[in-house]
Design brief:
The structure is a homodimer of 197-residue chains. Chain A has ten helices and no strands. The first copy, chain A, has 197 residues and is an all-alpha fold. Chain A has two domains: 12-48, Arc Repressor Mutant, subunit A (Orthogonal Bundle); 55-194, Tetracycline Repressor, domain 2 (Orthogonal Bundle), CATH 1.10.357.10. In chain A, helix 4 runs parallel beside helix 7 (120-144), helix 5 packs across helix 6 (103-111) and helix 7 crosses helix 8. The first copy, chain A, starts with 11 loop residues before the first helix and ends with a helix. Chain A binds chain B through residues 27-28, 30-31, 111, 114-115, 149, 151-152, 154-156, 158-167, 169-170, 173, 177, 181-182, 185-186, 188-194, 197, and chain B through 27-28, 30-31, 111, 114-115, 149, 151-152, 154-156, 158-167, 169-170, 173, 177, 181-182, 185-186, 188-194, 197. The structure holds a DNA duplex (16 and 16 nucleotides).
Chain lengths: 197, 197
DNA sequence: CCTACCGATCGGTAGG
DNA sequence: CCTACCGATCGGTAGG
């Protein structure tokens, strides 16, 4: 009669989602089994279904949660009064920090969303596309105002977003530089690559 | 009595590997089944085993082939007589072109290598680590010679390698800029981010 | 290259 | 939350 131990501030479902993110991060969605997950939580697989509906729903919940956070952030950044290049830098820093401190969730939503079931697959794809468009629009604004080098905005977005996902390697590396130094290095390389001299 | 159609220049095994790369790229290694693969090749699943030993071996062959290509290239670049920053640019361009023209193989080896079985998992991890070290060494050389901005070399490598994998999005995008323009844009952003003013 | 088939594992349910 | 279990699918083999 083992029980899922959840801390005071989170429900059992949240505890399951958290452990699932770690597991999906490590093994990938398809290779991770519900029996795997149950074992990590100290219960039998069948017991999980008292708290969640399906494996597919777990993935959906993780992906949508992450998507909402990024959308909320870009809305705030867009509304602020500041140069476009600074907006881009803020977006970049948000991505970096999420990848440093919440990397399992972000990584899973980034790499495993293809395994979402419809209609969430289409929905997620659309959220993603929309986010990237808005990100690119900020870069284009920077190009127009001559704050940013004349480059293809979509390419820049693609580089930035994928570069950030490289933080996954940093997590697994044995000789880590500090999180702050990592952030500054990334900002230096990526923002300087954009900035107009 | 369907037969695997292989072109003049390739064996049936090579044809299987090629189709497998496309399939693993699309679905991921675990979600792709041997029955999937067989169907795409127009034969029954059991027939594949006359040409390959196992699903695991297919992944291993793809990953090792890609690894060898990159290692052969870095050896050539290291041996050339030119400024470090130009060596870095050459490595970058090689990665970009591979991702443009052979993206299924590269993408699979990059994203699915975790599913390799031992001893290949350890071997591949080591090849990867070694390659990154050599890449980082070239960047460090550039920093010492003051051709490159003073940044953490490992971080730079991590950014560059992951940024390049973003070309996958470019493949799937509906409004593609040309391959040449993509390459120049990536080089601009990434190399300018490194170059010392 | 195919038919026929195996043992293992999967996500999930019934019922308590 | 557990025991017991199901149907589906998987990688792979035997034998021709």
């Amino acid at each position: 009669m083992a029980k899922i131990k959840s801390s005071e501030n989170s429900t059992k479902k949240e505890t399951i989602l958290e452990e699932a993110a770690r597991l999906f991060y490590k093994k990938g969605f398809n290779a991770a089994s519900m029996r795997d997950l149950a074992e990590r939580l100290g219960v039998e697989a069948a017991s999980l279904y008292n708290h969640i509906h399906s494996k597919a729903q777990i993935l959906k919940d993780i992906c949508m949660k992450v998507a909402e956070e990024f959308i909320a952030n870009i809305e705030q950044v867009e509304a602020a009064e500041q140069p476009a290049i600074q907006k881009v830098e803020e977006l970049l820093r948000f991505h970096i920090r999420k990848m440093i401190y919440k990397y399992e969730d972000v990584y899973v939503s980034d790499r495993e969303w293809k395994h979402l079931a419809e209609p969430f697959l289409s929905e997620y794809r659309e959220l993603r596309r929309n986010y990237r468009k808005r990100f690119a629009a900020l870069i284009e604004q920077g190009v127009e105002r001559q704050e940013i080098n004349s480059i293809n905005a979509s390419t820049a977005v693609l580089i930035i977003l994928h570069a950030v996902s490289g933080i996954e390697s940093w997590h697994r590396s044995t000789q880590k530089i500090t999180a702050d130094l990592l952030e500054e290095n990334m900002v230096t390389i990526l923002v300087e690559g954009l900035r107009k001299n």
